[in-house]
Design a protein that fits this description.
By secondary structure, this protein is an alpha+beta fold. It has four helices and five strands, in the order H-E-H-E-E-H-E-E-H. It has a domain at about 45-140: Alpha-Beta Plaits (2-Layer Sandwich). A three-stranded antiparallel beta sheet has the order 2-3-5. Strands 1-4 form a two-stranded antiparallel sheet. The model has no long low-confidence stretch (mean pLDDT about 90). The protein binds iron/sulfur cluster (2 copies).
Amino acid sequence: MSLLRDLGGLARGFGVTLRTFFRPPVTLRYPEQRPALAGRHRGRHELQRHENGLEKCVGCELCALVCPADAIYVEGAENPKAEPVSIGERYAKTYTINMLRCIFCGLCVEACPTEALQMKGEFELTGADRRSLIFTKERLVAPRPTSAPDDSWMPS
Ligand code: SF4
Ligand code: SF4
């Protein structure tokens, strides 16, 4: 009786092995093959710009306040009228994210009132030393738009 039970168990076990053997693999030959990321994947942060090149961030520090990992440091300053950096009265003079602390929860993105902060698909965040993983503003801010903004709506 127990021999029959053991044989039944063996047959079921081999059945699972056979079924799995003919299934396509779920692993990828990374890094040659890249995974298809979900549309809302939360990768590294990027500070956005307006079409005219000005930064969306107004240095309000809300993102730093809500961050549960204390990963963000923002120092706001008066926006220079002659050469404005953002469209607000203030801008982020200093902006850093410590990627070693970040848990990619996305709370900073939700808190941002100007939609300046977004999380992009980049997930390969390694570095040779700890300092290289503290991203400064220069690394976080998006490049300036290459084409001229459409300002035809503006009164001449
Ligand atoms: S994703 Fe979360 S942990 Fe990372 S910087 Fe934003 S609020 Fe902080
Ligand atoms: S990224 Fe958004 S929340 Fe953070 S300082 Fe800039 S405007 Fe404020």
